[in-house]
Amino acid sequence: MSLNAESTAFRSALEVIRAVEPRVADAIGAELADQRESLKLIASENYASPATLLAMGNWFSDKYAEGTIGRRFYAGCQNVDTVEALAAEHAKELFGAAHAYVQPHSGIDANLVAFWAILADRVESPALKKAQVRQVNDLTEADWFALRRELGNQRMLGMSLDAGGHLTHGFRPNISGKMFDQRSYGTDPATGLVDYDKVAEAAREFKPLILVAGYSAYPRKVNFRIMREIADSVGATFMVDMAHFAGLVAGKVFTGDFDPVPHAHIVTTTTHKSLRGPRGGMVLCGPELADQVDRGCPMVLGGPLPHVMAAKAVALAEARRPDFADYAQRIVDNAHALAEGLLRRGAKLVTGGTDNHLVLIDVSGYGLTGRQAEQALLDSGIVTNRNAVPQDPNGAWYTSGIRIGTPALTTRGLGASEMDTTAELMHTVLSQTTPGANADGTPSKAKYVLDPALAETVSKQASDLLAGFPLYPSVDLG
Ligand code: DSN
């Protein structure tokens, strides 16, 4: 494909949009310009390929296809069947899974599909059996009461939020925390690492129906073989949410005990983080859960997004290429280099480093809250997000941490030397930001003081750093 094809495609698309609502076309163009200019360190973001982006802008968006291949609730789904089957096939090949369900619209949706599949598989509930899609009309009022009673108080054991676990693993603000009686395992206070003996102890005491592994802010690998043994020892279904590190599994950086697919009963993921696909989710499982998983729509999902499934098929095909393995390894190498650069300059890192794609800086070492640090870095052209650290005294809103990750900058081509420069820029900002005060003189957890001239200098340095690594070099919007 010539480079011009991509520029032509995006230019033409914007021209067509501009003729209807120019402000939307302008916002799309501005988003590309902003992304090109910012040092993006958000661990959960990436840059999808032009082919993946283009696969989403088409007529598939107009098609309803509730159900799944072979049992649709709408006619005329033959082309949707084609892309759904392609995406599932690529996913199965890439991850070595027996079954792939590629409809979930997000990670939360993928987890909901998995939870319902596990409940349907594990809980002896005549009401639930009736609630399955084909019999839903037969449900009486009494059945619905029975359903709530039979499914209530099922137990889930997952990683605690402040240790790096995810909201959807049973925490109150999410539906999973209302569906399940939840308990958490944390990390060792001295090392910050998962203590498998403690997980086993918690599992023995709590006897969960589901043991969940997976994280969004834990900077280390998890041994899924050991976690499966723990699940088996208490008869739990073992679920792994690999949303953050799916790209590292796909790229064979996480293998053996660290590859969740051979060890878990069911694996969920998003497709847009380190996997570098379109925004969306996916579920992988063995044959025993496949039928229940395929009932995800309409059990918990709205109509599938065929245009996104088309893009998933494209991105998964890209991830099967040999250069994706190289990309995945560079993500981890860059995270190491970034962590080393920060440590060398005196930053305090949760667990003292990283062996995946992310680094969690404990910014209390700089006398700041996460909120202050996040904003000061943003003023300086560095995009990160605040995140709780284990036993965080500042809670989940202000936090004491800054989470950073390398998937996006690695896609742009930055390497170890640029990671060291990035560490220098971050350290400069963080060490020269001081906490601010409220109008009444009391200390603020949000306000901060940073010399605007310093912020401008760092922004310029960040922009100079990025200039050598153009984002979407093949796309010229003119
Ligand atoms: N929002 C994603 C993240 O940033 O980790 C996961 O929910």
Q: Could you give a quick summary of the protein structure above?
A:
The chain is an alpha/beta fold.
Question: How would you describe the overall organization of this protein?
Answer:
With 478 residues, the protein is an alpha/beta fold. Among the domains are: 59-154 and 234-319, Type I PLP-dependent aspartate aminotransferase-like (Major domain) (Aspartate Aminotransferase, domain 2, 3-Layer(aba) Sandwich); 322-467, Aspartate Aminotransferase, domain 1 (Alpha-Beta Complex). Helix content is 46%, strand content 14%. The protein is built from 20 helices and 16 strands. A seven-stranded mixed beta sheet has the order 4-10-9-8-7-5-6, with helices on both faces. Strands 11-14-13 form a three-stranded antiparallel beta sheet. A two-stranded parallel sheet has the order 1-12. It starts with a helix and ends in an 11-residue tail after the last helix. The model has no long low-confidence stretch (mean pLDDT 95). Bound molecules: D-serine.
> What structural category characterises the helix and strand content?
alpha/beta
Multimerization status: single chain
Strand count, sense and barrel status of the largest sheet are: 7 strands, mixed
Proportion in β-strands? 5-15%
Number of E strands: 16
Secondary-structure arrangement, i.e. CATH architecture of one domain? 3-Layer(aba) Sandwich
Computed Rg: 23 Å
Widest β-sheet, arrangement of strands: 4-10-9-8-7-5-6
Distance between the termini: 20 Å
